[in-house]
Amino acid sequence: MTQRPGTKGLIFNEPNVWDKSREGRCAISLPKADVERSPLDPALTGDTPNLPQLSELDVVRHYTRLSQWNFGVDSGMYPLGSCTMKYNPKTNEVQAARQGFAGAHPLAGDECSQGALRLMYDLERSLAEITGFDAVTLQPAAGAHGELTGMLIIHAYHAKQGRQRSKIIIPDTAHGTNPASATLCGYKSVNLKSGPKGILEPEAVAEIMDEETAGIMITNPNTLGLFEENIKEICEIVHAKGGLVYGDGANMNAIMGVVQPGKLGIDVLHLNLHKTFSTPHGGGGPGSGPVAVNEKLTPFLPVPRVEKELDTFKFVTDCPDSIGRLHTFYGHFGVMIKAYAYILTMGAQGLLDTSRLAVLNANYIKESLKGTLNLPYDRPCMHECVFNDAKQQEYHISTMDMAKRLLDYGFHPPTVYFPLVVDGAFMVEPTETESKEDIDQFIDAVKAIAKEAQTDPEKLTSAPVLPKVTRLDEVAAARKPCLRG
Amino acid sequence: MRYLPHTQEDIQKMLAVAGAGSLDDLFKTIPDAVKVKDGLNLPEPMSEWELNDYMEKLASENIACKGYTCLIGAGSYDHYIPAIIPYLVSRSEFATAYTPYQPEVSQGTLQGIYEFQTMVTDLLGMDIATASHYDCGTALAECALIALRKNKKADKIAVSDLVHPSHREIIDTYLKPSGYEMVLIPHTKDGLTDMTALEAMDGIAGVAVQSPNFFGHIEDLAAVKKVADAKKILFITSFTEALAWGILKNPGSFGADLVAGEGQSLGIAKTFGGPGLGLLAGTSKLMRDLPGRLVGRAKDSNGDDGYVLTLSTREQHIRRERASSNICSNNGLNAMTAAMYLSTIGKIGIREIAQLNHDKAMYLKSALAGAGFEPVFDPPFFNEFVMKAPRDFNRKRIDLINRQCVFAGLDLAPYYPELTDHYLFCATEKVSKQQMDQLAKEVA
C-alpha cells in the first residue's frame, strides 16, 4: 500500500499548568502605575485567585506542547461527517485580525462603525443570494443557536396568526440538536421515519401533518447524505395545513449554486459559517449560525437589524414583531469576516465548484469502499456517505474499533454512530479540499483496516497505539466525574 | 481556485469510479425543476491582494482603525493583550480542530479546557465551570431556565434592572415562548438593586443580580443570598468584567448557586462584540443541570491520565427530545485564549492589573469631577462609573471622537431614559494619566 501519514514520533510530556507554577513568576510586563493607588475597602476585596505563576517561555512551551497533541485540518484529513471540516484559508485570519475590525467596540455607534455594518449588510445579501431567501440575520452564535432562532420565529409567526400550535415533526434523518431546539419553544417533537430509500415520503408527512403541528424540521441534504427529492411536495403538504418548513442548512456545502432552498418552499433555514464557509471550528467553536427567511417571516427576525439608507448603514431595533435579541451584541462578527472573505474569494463559480467537488469526493469514496464496508443506502450521495460495521461484526469488530485504528494510520475518523437511523454508522465527509491522492490514502487505510479485522482483530480492539494516550475510558470518567484540577 | 486541488485528469478518473459521466450527473437525484438556472448573482472572485485592499478599506471605515482611546466598557473592555496570546491561539492544531469527539487525538484541546475550567472555578469560587458558552447574555438566559426547571411551581424569574440591558433582552427572548416571565427588580437612588423590592416578590424561581452592575457598582451579594435563602430560590449572579475577580470577593464566597459571566476581558479582542466568551459556573449540586460541555479526567487502557468530554448524557445528541438545552458548539477557542491569558498574567499579574484598573478609574472619576462632571452615585465600583455631564458635553464628545479618536463614555439615555446627560465611563490599565488629564482639559 501507499505510505501512511501516521507514523511514530517524539511526543513531549507536559504537566498541568499549575504543576509548572513557581511562586514569584509572572509572564506579563506590568505597567508602571502613573496614578496613585486607590485601595478598595477591605470588606469588598477577596483573596487573589490561585492562578499559575509562570515565565513567558513556560507559557509558550506549555501551549505549544498541548497543540501538538491535537489533530486539526491542517494536520491531516478530517472526514467528520456532517461537520464539513474543509481547509480554513489563512487569508481569512489576516482579514479578521485587522485593527479596524478586531479593535472595534460594539457600542461605538453606527457612524463610527460603518465598515463593520457594511460588511454585515453585504454578507447578509450574499447569503440571501446563495440560499434563495429574502432576508438574513447574522446574530445567532452557532448552528444550534440558529436553530433556536428559527424555531422562535416559527413560534412568533403562529402567535401572530392568533393560535399557537403544539407539535413539530422531526425526521429520523435530522440533526441531533433539532428536537432540543423545538423543546425550548415548548413544542413536542413528533418523530417521522424516512422511507426505504433513506428520504422522506410525502404520504408519510401528509399522514401526520395536522393543524396542531407548527411545522417540520428538515435537514437537506439529510444526514444520510441524500437529497430530499420530494421536498417541494412536502412543503406544499405542510403549508396547506398552515405549518411552516424549517430547513437545517448544515449540509449546504453540497448544494451551493445547485439549489437555492428558499426557492423550494422552505420558509426558514440556518447556515453554519464554520462548516460551509470555511471558518475554523476552534476545537469547539466559536461558530456562527445565520438564519435566512422568506418575506413572510422577515418581520420576526431578531433585533438589531442592519439597514442601508443611501450609502450609510445603521442598526434598527424598532421591529414590533421581532422575536427579540439573541446575543449581547451582534453575533460573532469575527467569524462573519472570515466567511465573507471566503465568499469574496470564491465567487459564484467557485462556490458551485466547491459543491460539485465535495459531492464528487464523497461518491468516489462511496464507490471505492462499498465492497469493504456495508453501505445501507446504495444511492448517489451528496457530500457525505454513510457506511456501517455490518460486515465487520462477524469478527466482533465495531465501528468504534475501526475509527480508533484509523487514528494509528494518521486520519481523523469519520463521524461514528450518527445518524441514528443507521446502526453502527460510519459517516464519511471528505469535503472538496482533499485531493485525490489523500483520498486514495484514506481508502487504502480503510481497506487495510478491514483486512486487519479478519486477520488480526486485536490490532483494532487495542487501537489506537500511536497517539499520546490510548483508548480512554469515557464510561468511568462519567461515573465519577472529576471536572477540575 | 487555489483551495480546490482537483486536476481535470483527477476529475475524469474519479467520475469513472463514481459511475457518472459528468459533474452535473452527480446531481441527478435533484429534480431539474428546482435547480439554479443562471448561476448565483455574486461579485467576481477577488485575488488575495484584491481582498486585502478591499478588507482594509472596510476596516478603515471603522473608527477602531485609528487606535482610538476607548473609555467605554459596558460589556466589552479594552485591555492589553500580550503578543504571545494571539500567537499561541492561532496554532492551527487548536484553531482547525473540531469538537474533541475523538479524545485520543484531542488531548491538547481537552487538557487546555480542563485547565480553563479549573481556573474559572478558582476565579469565581465555584465548584464547576463549563467549557464555555457564546457570551454572558446567553449563559445568563440558560441560568434563568435552570432555575425555572428546578422550581417547577414558579413561572417567574426576578432580574435586577441593573443587569446589562442586552442580557435582559436575551432572557426575555428565551423565556417568551415557554410562557415564563421576567420581573424586573428596580434600583435604589444609590444605583444598587433594591432588596426590599425583591423581598416583596412572590412566585419567583430565582433571582439574578449583576455585580459589578451595569453602572459599575459593586452589589451587596450577601444581601441577595439572604433573600434567596429565605425564599428557597436559586441565587444567580452575573458579571461582564472578569478581571474584577482579581481583587473583589468572588461570587462563590457569597454562596451563589449559578454564575454567568463574560470572559472577553481575558485576552480576547473586542471584535465589534463577538465572539466573546460566555462563562457559566455552578455548585456541584447543579452538576447535571448545567447546559453545555464539560471536560473530565479519565484513564486510558494503560492506566495513564487523559481527558474526555464527559456527562454527555445531559446533551442533545444523546437525549434528543428530552434534552433541556440545545447547546452544541461553544466558544472553545476563546476559552483556550482565556486560559492562556490567565496563565500569562498569573496570580501576581491579575491582582496588579485589577488594582490598576480601579486606580485609573478612580483617577478618571476625580479628573472628570474637576472638569464639571457630577458624580451622581456613590457606591464603590471596580473600573466603570456613571457621571452626569455638563450641558454642552455631547457636542464636545462628538468632536473628541472626530478630532482625536477619544471615546469619552457611553450615553446612558437610550438604556435608562431618566438618565439623560448621564454617561458610563470605563478606564482600564491601557489608559494613561496623561490621556485622562488631556480629556479633562478638553471637556472642562
TrEMBL record, chain B:
EC number: 1.4.4.2
Organism: Desulfotignum phosphitoxidans DSM 13687
InterPro entries associated with the record: GcvPA (IPR023010), GDC-P_N (IPR049315), PyrdxlP-dep_Trfase (IPR015424), PyrdxlP-dep_Trfase_major (IPR015421), PyrdxlP-dep_Trfase_small (IPR015422)
MF term (GO), any: glycine dehydrogenase (decarboxylating) activity
The protein's name in its UniProt record: GcvPA glycine dehydrogenase [decarboxylating] subunit 1
GO BP, one annotated term: nucleoside metabolic process
Pfam families xrefs: GDC-P
Keywords for the protein's UniProt record, in alphabetical order: Oxidoreductase
Matches recorded under Gene3D superfamilies: Aspartate Aminotransferase, domain 1, Type I PLP-dependent aspartate aminotransferase-like (Major domain)
Glycine cleavage system P-protein N-terminal domain mapped to chain residues: 1-441
